[in-house]
Amino acid sequence: MSSMKWSPLSTSRELNWNSSLLLLGQPKRPAKNLQKLIDAGIHTLADLLWIFPLRIIEKPRLKSFENLEGEKLFLGKGSIVSMKFYPAYGRRGKGRIQLFNAQALIKDSLSSNHLTIRWFNVYPNLKKQLETETELVFMGVVKESKGQLEIVNPKLNPKIEHNDELIVEYPTVNTVPGSHIQKYMDKIPLELWEQDLNYASKSFHSYPRTYLLEAFKVLHGRSTHISKDEAVTRIVFEEFFTNQLKMLARKLKNKNLKSEQFSSSDEQIDIIFQQFPYQLTEDQVKSLHDIRADLNSGTPMMRMIQGDVGCGKTTVALVAAQIIISHKKQVAFMCPTEALARQHFKTCQQVLGSDISFEILLGSTPPVEKKEIYKKLKDGSLDFVIGTHTLFQDSVEFKHLQLAIIDEQHKFGVNQRQKFISKGHNPHTLIMTATPIPRSLQLAQYGDLDISTIRTMPRGRKGIKTRIVDQMNYEKYLSFIKTRIELGEQVYVVTPAIEESVTDLKTVQEIFKTYQKFFPEAKIGCLHGQIKNDEKAAVMDAFSKGEIDILVATTVIEVGIDVANATVISIYNPERFGLSSLHQLRGRVGRADKPGFCFLLNLAPIADESKQRLRVIEKSLDGFEIAEADLKIRGQGDLFGKSQSGHLNNYKLADIFQHYPIFEQATREINKIKAEQTEVLNNILLELCEDKNISSTI
């Protein structure tokens, strides 16, 4: 590990903050790591500033081994007493080269003490370097192993003469190590750090107290002219302000687009309603009223339908689809999982008339069938297709796609959604989410979308009772499960873990074996994300047909399974899930005329905050109330679960809950600009409209 720093580039290359990141490399030999950063959306030197350090710490002074302290960064110097090398079996580096592990015993140069240093997975060049060294200067975090202090993978030969230096550690980005990002930061010309950035609020003379670049310099360890809190506040304001501008630009761009108009009469809608074996709720009818107006507006619909699991969002989507199909145009319905796609396809089989041609297109669809579906989509003979990620593949072409429906849109990446929508020419777009979105997030993240909310549930639902189960009442719980099975009902058992681990998580296999012992007469199935799609489909089909009494599964059942006879869902380690995820899982039961039961199996001690969260889900069935509570307790990053945190929160530092007063300040500033600087605002919005990266929240 080298401590050598790259020298700042000369300004003779005329670098500015908008310069391409590639200019930090060699002119005739662009670095692969720079291209990886560009692939991750970091195109300019200004973009590089948004990669914030993981930590900034003061470089320690050279001390004797007598001052070693666990978990503290230590700078030491000593002579090598012994050195051992051995192959790191099973570990290969680039080009399949053999890696090595090493262990050295070092005698302190400032005392008579000794210290063990270990290296893991080192390349031969470092091995060769260590073999020739007799003395080492090293820096690393002190760890305790078997009662002894040691250092693992230290930095070698750091400069020791500048003890006032800060050590800045950056994260890995798209496999580019933080050490390389640090080197790219160091190559930015010193003069450039004195030139202010171009940024959104600067155009309107908003928030003048602190220059944005000064805030960046503080957070990158290059200035102390303002406090860290001031720097964070300044950058958070800029993120909120810029995001609000982007939403205004998206709305403006969408308003200027033209799309086909699709009218629908009340008589036509009444005929479509009669296809469903139930009466639509007031909220469903209101949502359809909004959609009908959108479809006939002449500009592309950008509408989100939000509502709890089982509230009838799919019904609304299918009515909208039939309006489009009645005009001889095509509809595509994209789902995140094959299970959900099959569920929607099954619903279509039950309600759509024979005059509508529809197919299901999955990754597991046989090649011959895929080829036939591709042909029908291209020549326009297929009205309606339901599918997964396959729908945005290059091989899929539509003749007249005019309605794109996306279910659980947060489970798709931005590029995936945009690629799907681009299959048509300015098609209308309807997205659905079963995770109710708090009003604060609606304003911050979805301000450019029209949102319809379905709160009322279909008639006939018996509701769901939720109870927390601990070791004290576990046997009582098992007895209840036995009773429900004897009544002919079915049970979901959910765990967050698939395989054995060092944690206290209950695994799928462990629970499967346990329930076989508890319920020897019951038919028990097992389902998780690592089994093949056809096996998964077979298990789901068997459960749907009542051939399985208890289904032990991971969260693959969160969406896509609708079994009316399943009345109980038991969730192990519920503290590992967000409240909204627990609420969605709970929505798998109580979907028909039988009451549902949800058990949160908390069999090990958990933190007070986790207990507080579980009480929220135990006491409330209102998804909107739960989403607000989840936002307050965990923050917005976890609202849609771990996979969503990177997408929903497009901010680097800003957090809509933690920084809500700053968000309100940015919103007030935008509203003031709308009133006082209309012409400047419009010019900037038109410029932003040209940026493809902000073309759609969808």
Q: What kind of oligomer do you see?
A: single chain
Instruction: Please state how the strands of the largest beta sheet are arranged side by side.
Output: 11-12-10-13-14-9-15
Q: CATH homologous superfamily of the largest domain, by name?
A: P-loop containing nucleotide triphosphate hydrolases
What is the CA-atom radius of gyration, in angstroms?
A: 30 Å
Helix count?
Answer: 22
CATH architecture of the largest domain: 3-Layer(aba) Sandwich
Mean pLDDT: 84
Secondary structure: helix percent: 25-40%
**How many separate structural domains?**
4
Global outline:
globular
**Sheet having the most strands:** 7 strands, parallel
Q: What class, by secondary structure content?
A: alpha/beta
Beta-strand fraction estimate: 15-25%
SSE arrangement:
Blueprint: H1 32-39, H2 45-48, E1 55-58, E2 73-92, E3 98-108, E4 114-122, H3 124-132, E5 135-145, E6 148-152, E7 155-156, E8 166-169, H4 178-186, H5 212-219, H6 228-256, H7 266-273, H8 282-295, E9 302-307, H9 313-325, E10 330-334, H10 338-351, E11 358-361, H11 367-379, E12 384-387, E13 401-407, H12 414-421, E14 428-433, H13 439-445, E15 450-454, E16 464-469, H14 474-486, E17 490-494, H15 508-518, E18 524-527, H16 533-544, E19 550-553, E20 566-572, H17 579-586, E21 596-601, H18 608-619, H19 623-634, H20 642-648, H21 660-676, H22 678-689
Parallel strand pairs: 4-6, 9-14, 9-15, 10-12, 10-13, 11-12, 13-14, 16-21, 17-19, 17-20, 18-19, 20-21
Antiparallel strand pairs: 1-8, 2-3, 2-5, 3-4, 5-6, 5-7
